[in-house]
Amino acid sequence: MECFPQYSGKQTVGLNSKMAKQNPWIIGILGFGVFLYLAWNNFEMPFAPWTKTAEIKAVITENALGYGPMGRGYTQIITISYQVDDSVYVQKKKLSQRIDKKKMGSKVLIEYAVKDPGNFEIKGFLKQ
């Protein structure tokens, strides 16, 4: 009596070879897509689709300038203040070098999370 029955024909274990070759490529392409999306958004996580948000106007109360990378250009760190219900929020945000210099007193349109008004995103700068 034999312990192992004899198999006839070609045996495959697990996934077939065509599927095994495609899976790493699919995972790599999806990972690269996620990386590009985050890079486009300056590596900041945007609001989740299920998060309730609202828009409000904020005022720039302070503008600090610094040197850009390797001494080229400048960077801006603005301080904005806005009011939600009875609370006043004061937040700092570093702006991209692509954005022109902003003045104190300028208006900013922001989007904030309703449950956490300290979590905000700048939507645009309003003309005075």
UniProtKB/TrEMBL annotation:
The keyword Transmembrane helix applies. Keywords: Membrane, Transmembrane, Transmembrane helix. The keyword Membrane applies. The chain crosses the membrane at residues 25-43. This is DUF1093 domain-containing protein. It comes from Belliella aquatica.
